[in-house]
Amino acid sequence: MIVGVTGGTGCGKTTALQAVQALGGLALDCDAIYHELLKSDKRMLAAIAERFPEAMENGSLARKKLGAIVFADPNALEDLNAITHAAVRREVVSCLHNWKGQLAAIDAIALFESGLASLCDKTVAIVAPEEVRIARLMAREGISEDYAQARIAAQKPERFFRESCTAVLENKGTREAFYETCKAFFAELISAEIETIVRRRKYEQRTTA
User: Fold this and answer.
1) Angle in degrees, CA 126, 130, 135, rounded to 5
2) CA torsion 99→100→103→106, rounded to 10°?
3) How far apart are CA 122 and CA 120, in angstroms?
4) DSSP string for residues in 45-71
5) What's the mean pLDDT when you consider all of the chain?
């Protein structure tokens, strides 16, 4: 089973992925994958260099320059996303192809925009109160309250994730409590998937006997 995990920054997606790993599942963090591809994917880097030559310095990508360009121009950001989403998707598909376990999770804030949701059997929105998210961002990244609020305001609203996903996990308490909630949720998914497979095999045996 492949589960898409999404939600705004500071909601607790990393905790959900850790729960997947604890159950023996494959956890694919698309943000981490993207940063690795910036070092190794020549195809993606060539496409970025072709579209944004002004963001290159001595043959290397200057990420701050690129950020300044795309965040000031929605069309430029859309072009960059088209390049990077395609590269991340290729890597995710490769990882899934080589995975033989029962559960894999794809963590992507742009799960639907990137097309990664089409790879998933289920999608899960991780949500949390805004004040909790702000406090987490401030503590985690050492940023001001105003900057944390601006980061959150620039992303999709909670309603988008709730309405787009097949399930919602609310992160309102401690990290430990949410971790256990996630483990129970994903364990139930695995159990239901196994039960479905068993029923299907029994049906196939009866119809071919």
Assistant:
1) 100
2) 10
3) 5
4) HHHHHHH-GGGEETTEE-HHHHHHHHT
5) 90
